[in-house]
Amino acid sequence: MLLKQLKRLVRENWWRLNQDRFPRHPDGKTLLHIGCGTINSPGFINIDARKYPHVHFVAKNLTSLPLFPGDVADLIYMCHVLEHVTRDQVGAVLSEMFRLLKPGGTLRLSVPDFDRLIEMYFASGRNIPSVSGALMGGQDYAYNFHYVVFNAEFLGDLLRSCGYRDIRT
Fold this sequence. Notes:
Elements: H1 2-18, E1 31-34, E2 44-48, E3 57-58, E4 73-79, H2 90-100, E5 101-110, H3 114-123, H4 129-136, H5 152-161
């Protein structure tokens, strides 16, 4: 218990001392782009598993982002990232994002929709290559593999189990 409190105190103090080194949105909000890859999002703190010049934090494990205190982000954007997390860690990642969000903050997710992939598969005449990239990832570097499939109902249930309430498609 004491160690947990000490870690939280260190995080909060580190953030207070260093937060001015990182971008802020023009309206003063703190925006995190988790899994930014090659995309530089101005006004966002860019976080990725790979080191690029625009990446502020390299993080290979999204179940814990220890340099950030809780309630720090107004918006977290994760575009085609969650499917790259192993099945058994998806809940922990969503819980960590919940910890990082300020009350009333927004988690904006985009994942391949398994229901839509099935439709595409049948519309293509059952052509597996038409859906294999979206289903299994590009597989062109170590982190580009998909471990989980989602549809709106499954993702909504996961989000609710981690404390999210106002869930919209």
